[in-house]
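Appendix B, example 12.
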Amino acid sequence: MEIVIVDDEPVSLAVLKQLVGKLPDCKARAFAHASAALAWCDSNDPDVVIVDYMMPGLNGIEFTRRLRAVEGRSDTPLLMVTANAEVKVRDSALESGINDFLSKPFDSTDLQARVSNMLALRFSQQKRANRISSRDTVARGVTGETVQRDHNQLLDYDLTLARLGGDAALLGDIARIFMRTVPQLLISIRDALDQNDLERVYIESHSLKGAVGSVEAPAVLKAVLDLETHARNDEANAAAAAFADADTVIQRLSTELAALVS
């Protein structure tokens, strides 16, 4: 998998390249100039793009708009690295096509987890055309054992596996990343709600949405979308209630994912 990194700051670029390069089967291609990265992406197909927000000449948002305009790059997963926490900046980035954010200074584990989630999304995109529906087959977990069906289950195992091209091992990897990253996001959102910091709630709930979206769990995704919407609209009481609902179903989903890899 090829990951493009765009950052005009040499130290940040070097750190990002080194950390991304440690991920399995990943090659990091670094660019100090956004225009050079765009030129490369015009004739090559990156699997994930990491772009800084503040850059001279062409900032991360304009870079994203231009990249999205390139044929075949409309769904390339993009991660924006930024020290700017302003909601208007995040909103503009989302409108331009950014999928997720990483705040500076960033934690190496957080970076690698978010990139791994995006790689899982990319893998799903690449396999989608050739996926084989497994809805009428006997579903098996990542250990190879038959998965017991429960009509109250939040995770649609069959559809998730189909999205991943039938790769149960990849689903196991996604489950482990989910269980490693989501608890911290929930803690951060809870703290932000206690401090009435709805801007932070919105930012973190957007990241939570990306994590939940890595599997097929419609009820959980809806709960997180409700939380994100109320936070964006500055509705504190509604956001708190939505978080309680989201926390409940996410805990259930985490239990179901843990059962797959146990």
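Residues 135-261 form a domain with the Four Helix Bundle (Hemerythrin (Met), subunit A) fold (CATH 1.20.120.160). The CA atoms of residues 61 and 93 lie 5 Å apart.
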